[in-house]
Amino acid sequence: MTLGSLDRRCFRAFVPLLMFAGAAGAQVTTLFSENFEGPPGPPGNVGAYTEVDPFSGVPAPTLWHEGNACGSFPVSNYAVTTSTAPFSSILGGPSTVTLFTSGDDGFSGRIVVPFVYQHFGIAFQLVDVSRNGMLSTFPGAGGGTDFINQAPGTATTPNGVIGAWWDDTFHSTGQTAYAVLGSAPNRQFVVEWNGLEAFPGNGSGENETSQVLIDEGTGVLHFRYDNATFATGGDPWSATCGTESFDGAAGTDATGLGANNSVFPSTGFDLTPLPPAIPPLPACFGTGAATYNQGDIGIFNYDTGVANAGAIESPAAVSTSATATLVMIFDFTKDTEGGGSTSFDQCFVETSPTGLATWTTQVQLSGNTGPCGGPIDTQILVLPASLSGTSFQHRFRFDTVDSVGNNYNGWSVDNIRINQAAGTIAVAYSENFEAGTVPGVTVGNMTEEDPFGTALDTLWHAEANCDGGSPGTYTASVGPAGYTSISGNPSAVLIHGPFTDDSLGIIGVPIAFNFYGAPAATLGVDSNGPVGPGLPFSDFTNDPIPTTFTPNGWVSPWWDDNHTGSTGS
Questions:
Q1: Do 460 and 443 touch, CB atoms closer than 8 A?
Q2: Pairing outcome for strands 64-67 and 289-292
Q3: Integer CA distances (angstroms), 44 to 72, 445, 566, in order
Q4: Could you tell me whether strands 97-100 and 175-181 are parallel, antiparallel, or unpaired per DSSP bridges?
Q5: What is the dihedral of CA 416, 422, 426, 427, to 10 degrees?
Q6: pLDDT digits 0-9 by tens, 68-97
Q7: Phi, psi angles (nearest 5°) of residue 385
C-alpha cells in the first residue's frame, strides 16, 4: 500500500511517524540503497540499476540515465574584449565568394557554413548575409527590415544578428564577400563588407570596411575594422556593433552605444561565449539522480518524435524474515504531460520475484511536483507481505504512451532505500482534519500555539477547500410588495447630495458579508443606481448581465443614467 507522499524541499529531518510493533529493540535493516553518487557504471547501467526494455524485459538502451542537472540554458551573454589584431581583407583570396557588388538592402539567401557553430548556446550551420553590414543565424532568425539597425537584444526582426557595423548602407562601388580560412578543426568563417557608403549612396563621402569572423569549435566572434579607410561624410553613420540571440531575447553590445555608433571603434573586438547556466538538481539529490529524459545529450525532455518507454531494474533484495515488514522510500521530481495525468506519460513503481519478470504495480504516480529543481516528493510504500522472506526486485518504469505532449522535463528518482523491520507495521499517529476542530483552540486534535509553546489563536485552521472556489450564483425570487424609504431614519447617511450626477461614494460596511463568495468590507455606491464592492468609478452606461465591461461587482434594482434630484440619495 502507499503509506504517504510528502511535498517538500530537501527537508532532511523528515521522519515518517511509523511504529513497528513487535519485540522491543527490533532491528531495522536496509536491504537496498542507491543515491547515484558513485562513479558512472558501464553503458546500460544507472547506478545499481540496469536499463531494460519494459515490453521485452531484456536489457536495452532507454532514456534513463544518471542525471546531474535539470537543464542547460543558452548562454545569456558574451564576454567582450578589445583586440589589436590587424585587419586583413579576404578580397581576391582563393576561397573568397563575392555576394554583392551593387545595390541596396536584401539578404544573400542561406549559406551553409562548413562547420557547426554555437551562437548563444545553440548550434547553427546556416547564415544569411545582409548588404547592410550584418549576418543572421539560421534557422529561426533573420527576417524583418535589414536596413533598420537596432540595439542588440531587441525582439523586433531581424534577429540572430551578428554585426560588426550594422547600418543602412549602399553598394556604390563596394562589395560584400565571404571565405573559409584555415583547416579543420580550427577554421574561420569570414564575411567582409568592403567600401560601403551610407545610404542613399549619393557620393557624400562615407566609407566603411569591416569583417565578422566565426571560429570553429569555440564559437568566438571577432569584429575587425579597417580604420585606415573609414570615413564620415554628408550622410551620418548610426551603426550597431554587437550580436543577439535567434529570438532577440538576449544581446551583447560590443561598444555600449546601441544603434548610435557614429565612428569606427579604435580597436576590434573578440566576443567569447560565457559558460551555460545549468539549473542544478535539488540539493537533497546531491550530484546525481536517475532521470528519464534526454539530458545526457543536452535535451532536457523526452520528446523523441515517437512514443517511448523505458525501465531501470534493480538487483535482488533478499528479505530474511517471512514476518517482517518491508518499506520502500524514495525521493522524486516529476514534470509530465497534462499536469501529471495517469493516462499519458505514466510513471510506475513495480516489484517482481527475482528473475521471474512478473511485475506487479505498487504505485502509479499522479500529479507533478513541478520543475526538476524542486520541490521534491518523498514516496513511502509498504510492500506486500508476500515479498517478506523472499528475494525480489523492483523497477521504475516510464511510458509516454504516445508521441505527443512529450516536451516536459520527465521523472527523476533518488535516495532509494528498502528497509526491513521485524514485526508488523502500525500507525502511531493519524489525523485527517475531518472532525474535532475548535476554532482558535485546535485544528483537528492538534493544539494551536505560538512557536514558543503558548496556546494562542493563530492563522492555522481546518481548510475546507484549496482556494476561494467558484463564486457561485444567487437565486432570484419574488419579494414582498411595497417600498419603505429610509430617508427619515435617524441612522440614514446622505451619500450623494441634491442634483448630483455621476458620483461614486465609498462607505464602510459594519457587518461581515460575502459577495459572490468573496468577503467584502466596503461598498461603492453609484448615483446612477448600482452598488457593490467592485465599483471603481461612477458609470452612467448600464450594462447587460453578465458582462466583462467595467465596472464589475455590483447589484442594482434600477441602473440607468440617473440624477439624484432635489433630495439626494
A1: yes
A2: antiparallel
A3: 23, 51, 90
A4: antiparallel
A5: -40
A6: 877 765 556 899 999 999 999 999 999 999
A7: -60, -25
The Cα-based distances of 134 to 138, 158, 224 in angstroms read: 13, 10, 13
* More confident position, 533 or 47: 47
Rounded CA-CA distance 110/104 in Å is: 18
DSSP SS3 for 422: coil
Q: Strand, helix or coil at 327?
A: strand
By DSSP bridging, strand 208-215 and strand 251-253 are unpaired
Residues 406, 493: Cα–Cα separation, whole Å: 63
Which one, of 305, 329, 276, 251, lies nearest residue 2 by Cα? 329
Q: Report how far residue 548's alpha carbon sits from residue 205's, in angstroms, rounded to the nearest whole number.
A: 61
- 354 vs 319: CA distance, rounded Å: 12
Per-residue pLDDT, 20: 46
The H or E element that residue 401 is part of is none
Closest by CA position to 377, among listed 1, 4, 3, 2: 4
C-alpha cell at 26: 527490533
User: Cα–Cα distance between 134 and 161 in angstroms, integer?
Assistant: 6
Residue 328 region by backbone torsions, left for phi larger than 0, else alpha for psi between -120 and 50, else beta = beta
The β-bridge partners of 318 are 391
List of E strands, 41-152: 45-46, 49-52, 64-67, 78-83, 97-100, 107-119, 122-130, 135-138
Over residues 506-563, the pLDDT tens digits come to 777 777 777 776 777 777 777 777 777 766 666 667 777 777 666 777 777 877 777 7
3-state DSSP helix/strand/coil percent for the chain, to nearest 5? 0, 40, 55
Residue 459 confidence class, pLDDT cut points 50, 70, 90: confident
Residue 9 confidence class, pLDDT cut points 50, 70, 90: very low
Q: How far apart are the C-alpha atoms of 177 and 136, rounded to whole Å?
A: 15
CA 192/CA 209 separation, integer angstroms: 7
**DSSP assignment, residue 567?**
T
Question: Environment class of residue 363 by beta-carbon count within 10 Å: exposed (0-12), middle (13-18) or buried (19+)?
Answer: middle
Helix, strand, or coil here: 179?
Answer: strand
Return the ∠ at Cα 326 (arms to 321 and 328), rounded to 5°: 150
Query: Mean pLDDT for the chain?
Result: 84
Residue 185: cis peptide before it, omega within 30 degrees of 0: yes
As a whole-number percent, the residues of the chain with pLDDT over 90 amount to 51
Q: What is the pLDDT of residues 471-517, one digit of tens each?
A: 556 777 776 766 777 777 777 777 766 777 777 777 777 777 777 76
- For residue 377, the 8-state DSSP code is E
Give yes or no for residue 190 having a pLDDT over 50: yes
Q: What is the pTM of this model?
A: 0.49
Do residues 167 and 238 lie in contact, with contact meaning Cβ atoms separated by under 8 Å?
yes
Residues 6+ apart with CB under 8 A from 15: none
pLDDT digits (tens, 9 = 90+) for 266-294: 999 999 998 766 677 888 788 899 999 98
C-beta of residue 137 within 8 angstroms of C-beta of residue 162: yes
Q: CA of 46: how far to CAs of 57, 61, 453, 457, in Å?
A: 16, 11, 47, 51
